[in-house]
């Protein structure tokens, strides 16, 4: 049995909130495997906020600026401040793997190597670290979890109660449904008309509807749906996770595309319905039967190299001038069936973020 590593550095500078959420089991697994060790995580804002207050993390580091070379500079500063015994990174650009290797630490610098098309990214990370002897077999089964404080949990309950009063008689209340309509990238957006149709159907069935606040208002479910949609407060990622945890306690469901907030909802314990188009659900899905894949047979999809797909950066679909054909291929009826099944099967859930 090896001695625990005393100084661990985890680097995730991919930039996406969802990327960091997928790495949380790595952070928690390394902390469990090395009790008493110091574990620092270097990540971009705003995702770095998810690690502040996490008992597994000793210190959260962030780049000093957003300009060219900032990521490499941040890694160099972290190494100069304290040399790690173990360094793990999901980040491959800017010479960061070589920089870590030159520190003399035990390094795992390619968590993306040789990925099977149907192995979820987060599980791939864990299996590589298991093969390296850095995690235990039981760690591979762990799902992402945001660890919330009691005060944050209370905040989420209060924020939800103000928008969805719990005054409906017991036994007749429908669980709330959160619609995450913004997706960050146009190529991942479900058509606005589908969102309006879904909102109208859910409202007719008596589900309270909510949506995260968005500064731009892009993709919002508007009055054309005829449904009343409450807006969750703009409260930072930990506050949003707390709101999702409160939704989970009421047996609610979060619906959204392949985006950070949907992964955050799952990590907070909420049931989710994921809408996947350009990204392959078998690799990037949340990991439930309710990850819905649009246009499974698309000849242009590359599960292990999504950024090389012709539609990725421009959302110009080779199969449809109207927009991503894969997203348009997901019918409202399928989403409704998934929401109904989850609400019926889980009257209340215990959020994973309770510690």
From TrEMBL:
GO molecular function, one term: ADP-heptose-lipopolysaccharide heptosyltransferase activity
Gene3D superfamilies xrefs: Glycogen Phosphorylase B
InterPro entries (alphabetical): Glyco_trans_9 (IPR002201), LPS_LOS_Heptosyltrfase (IPR051199)
Protein's UniProt keywords contain Glycosyltransferase: yes
Name of this chain's protein: ADP-heptose:LPS heptosyltransferase
One matching Pfam family: Glyco_transf_9
A single GO cellular-component term on record: cytosol
Species, as recorded: Microbispora rosea
Source domain of life: Bacteria
Transport is among the record's keywords: no
GO biological process: lipopolysaccharide core region biosynthetic process
